[in-house]
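Sequence only, no structure available. Ideas?
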Amino acid sequence: MKHQQRASYPAPAGVVLKMFSDLGYQRNKLTALGIEFEILDFAQSPASTRLKARRFIPMQVSGIAARILPKTTVVVNNENWDLVNQTGWVEVTTQGVPLALECTARFESNEESCEIVYDWDIKAKLPMGAGVLEKFIAADMDEKAEKELEVAISFLDDYR
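Reply:
I predicted one. Tokens follow.
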């Protein structure tokens, strides 16, 4: 399933990428979101940033999804940001949920603000009901992305 998300920041792309490239920000963001996490890998150069983090995510499930999904899932986010071209790539792996998620990301920016466009490919690995699970995951991702954006914006002034 193809799914697009947009995240608008009241700062230019360079400021947002500077924030994304700070391990302290990444830790503070996850803590502020109340997510239990472990940083597995972090690498930074003048041209790129890579972050791999294990997150323990509670799932709000009911109906058919409750029969398929655990109450808490372990998610590994592997984020890669090209600071020069202002693009990114994210791969998400899950334990206990038959899914494959990945996306490309690109910045649309002006002098005062930017928007990140995430183009997701969500694939449920189920013989039946894959579409239902994919739609549930997309809606859950959208809800979590809104909260993550609010938290991220609250840290922006530290990177201006």
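The radius of gyration is 16 Å.
Hope that gets you unstuck.
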